[in-house]
Amino acid sequence: MAKVVLGMTISLDGYINDSKGSVGRLYQDLDELRHSEVLKESIRNTGAVVMGRNTYEMTTDPDLYADNYEYQAPIFVLCKKEPQKHPKENEELTFTFVTQGIEHAIAQAKEAAGNKVVTVIGGAITAQQCLKAELVDELQIDIMPVLLCGGIKMFEHIGEEQIELEKLSVREVGERTSILFRVVK
Questions:
Q1: Structural domains of the chain, count
Q2: What is the pTM of this model?
Q3: Of residues 157, 106, 164, the one with CA closest to residue 128
């Protein structure tokens, strides 16, 4: 059964975007990141992706995902309502819009991923829902050395229950520090 890895880039003060909603300062190193072994390894190991609707809509044209997106795998988009136009797909990259909640999105992604990893990316709400529902096996947190001093915090609204983590690895990718944790269940 596939394991679920939640990946997120945050500022040193824990924000996933600035007070204007921009993620620009967190991805100043995007070219370097694209060529890093950390991202290449994640792409190789990923069998399916779960993302929130806002992350899906970050691109101006969703048809660009096919053949251009790093993760050429089935993508499950958590949303309240399906888009009017279904985006372009290819043999590896398909889209499923899941309106029944995070548990359904993760279950479908696990089935599609087989023995590979389900990678959950982008979006604080999606990440928080996964953590609250105890669906995450590993947490891949990349920390950029910037202080955004406002925006959306990654670890707000995850409930009152303590989440125990075990550090698995720490890697440097240019300016970012990439830490992999196992969620102790």
A1: 1
A2: 0.93
A3: 157
